Amino acid sequence: MNIDYVGRHYTIDDKVRTFAETKLKKIFKFLDEPVEARITVASEKHRHSVELHIAHKHGVLQADEEHDLVLDALNLAIDKVEKQARRSKSKAVDKRRRASRSADGQNHWPMDVLEAESLGSGEPPRVIKSSRLEIKPMSIDDAALALTSSKNDFIVFREAGTERIHVLYRRRDQNLGLISPELEA
Questions:
Q1: What integer is the mean pLDDT of 4-29?
Q2: Which of 104, 105, 108, 130 is most buried per CB count within 10 Å?
Q3: HSE-up of 76 (CA within 13 Å, CB side)?
Q4: CA 12 – CA 42 distance, rounded (Å)
């Protein structure tokens, strides 16, 4: 954490430095090291403008504010940068979560519902609905219980002991059928 102070027609005193450092500590917890901050305070007549520029590992945050008092302008600029830091942190977290969800694609199978009339026409089948089936590890007994509360007449699951994929389905005579694909070596 490195903070540089630049004063244009203004002498930066210890009060401004300590105020800035205490406020910036809150922001630095959202940012990854290395963090470089530059605070530029300019004074023209009775207006004070503050430019805040923070460079961190994943980008740059900046804000400009003007006010009659230096500390108020600095406080407004720091609030703007804090909002930017929170937003960038939440974007990074969301991006990681989306990436981990897509990495779990092996536990899902795509399922398309096709229109029956489009199958024999020689054209590509028309998809009515697309969804994803979640494949959970469970025993055959657990799958039978899950099938009773399922909205589908079948359930795809991974057997807990062998990691093999099975399909348990409800037959027309209300009994249950089990499909266990055998992989050829």
A1: 91
A2: 108
A3: 13
A4: 10
